[in-house]
Amino acid sequence: MEMQRSILAKAKHACAKLSSVYNKGSMIKLSERQVISTKNQPPFDVFISYRGTDTRRTIAGLLYDHLSHVGQLRPFLDYKSLSPGDNIMDKISAAVKTCRVGLPVFSPRYCESYYCLYELALMYRTSKCIVPIFCDMKPSQLRVPSDRSSTLQCFAWALDEAKETVGLSFDSTNGDWSELLTNASDAVRKMLEGSE
């Protein structure tokens, strides 16, 4: 009983603190600041497209960290690059359109995701340099599952393009993670240097 009262008191204190901080004037200032910082934000160098259930906490996150810290690049990775209140589709579309290199991380469930296929198609439509990474799959396995809706079928052409693009292959069970990160970073740098 004592513990419940303590937790309830802490929760009420936190709510009161938040209420005093988020008055109407400060919310307007925050919104204006967010708009200004978004407009002044430089475009991303690399857009990482991935299926969260397969690779969010492994290859996608490691690529983001490696590219930003070791490679000193500006990668976009949704869960690290989006802020509360952002419109997901608007921010993702803008990031794809302004990036210079697309880095789709193909994994076994990538082709089941509308968002992944949308990002891939947008990369090809906007003529980005693309470095595909085939994680635990082969390029020949890229296809929209036959039991999926026709909504996904409209992206089949983008998967066909990806099959024809030379990429990096990686086996997450037996592969050398350090080598993959280095090879991906080198490939992205080479693409960036070639697009200048």
From TrEMBL:
GO terms for biological process: signal transduction. It comes from Cucurbita maxima (Pumpkin). It comes from the Eukaryota. Residues 42-192 form the TIR domain. Pfam families: TIR_2 (PF13676). SMART domains: TIR (SM00255). The keyword NAD applies. Signal peptide: none annotated. The keyword Heme does not apply. InterPro entries: TIR_dom, Toll_tir_struct_dom_sf. Keywords: NAD. This is TMV resistance protein N-like.
